[in-house]
Amino acid sequence: MDLQLQGKSVVVTAASKGLGKATALEFAKEGASVLISSRNEKELERSKNDIIEQSGNENVAYEVCDVTNPDHIKKLVQKAVNWNGTVDVLINNAGGPPAGTFDDFSDEDWQQAFELNLLSFTRTIREVLPSMKKQQSGHIINIASSSIKQSLDHLILSNTFRAGIVGLSKSLSQELAPDNILINTVGPGRIATDRVESLDQKKAESLGVSVDEVKEQAAQSIPIKRYGEPDEFARTVVFLASGGNTYVTGQALVVDGGLVKAL
User: Is 210 exposed, middle or buried (CB count within 10 Å of its CB: 0-12, 13-18, 19+)?
Assistant: First the structure.
């Protein structure tokens, strides 16, 4: 299948590692011009070089961007437009908020999670829409969590704001369809990333067991009996954001090896 991504302008946020980096790599393999961002310039530069080396695609650039800063978001999108003339694909991604229960968090914690995991997505979408509407096409993928289908214990902040992403995406899918702009939400299950490693470590400490025990127990709860790999997740995102997808919009999909049992 021709995904029709050759030369397309792609922006991927939070792409210095983990799912963002894996997704950017898959776009680069398809010949897209990929602009990655995160807060850490050293990690971004390393990721850029890794992506170029592994994909053979030199059209990879980066911009330092704290997605909780609206001026940074404006600068990021403007760089993509200056570089490629437009933005064809936006991959919204952000690090997860802290784990914990309701009593663990203050108003400030809630505000920070809102700005990182929902408001940042809204702002980035706002910035790319003029280009997409002008060309009457575009793809937006919001990366969330499997909590978009089934809440996760001790992750109340994530459960709350990831659900908000689904509401945002569904509403926008209706508003943007006349402009041929497709928007979907993709939630990872237990994918082998630093974020999941951190959550496993915290759970192991609270239970007084080894991380390996936590991982083994978690793997047994997954029908496929293993954690997913970042590239497995990324390939799903790339398809939904490609020319191969012309009719799927407003959907919330989990990539989880069958873990979530909710319909």
Answer: exposed
One-letter amino acid for residue 49 of the chain? N
For residues 206-234, give the mean pLDDT.
95
Count of domains forming the chain: 2
Domain match, 48 and 166 both: yes
- What is the domain extent for residue 152? 9-191+230-254
Cβ atoms of residues 220 and 257 within 8 Å: no
Among 10, 11, 78, 57, residue whose Cα is nearest residue 38 = 11
Does pTM surpass 0.85?
yes
Residues 244 and 202 grouped into a single domain: no
On whether both 187 and 75 belong to a single domain, the answer is yes
Cα separation, 120 vs 162, in Å, equals 12
User: CB of 176 within 8 A of CB of 137?
Assistant: no
Report how far residue 237's alpha carbon sits from residue 221's, in angstroms, rounded to the nearest whole number: 24
Q: Please tell me the predicted confidence (pLDDT) of residue 103.
A: 97
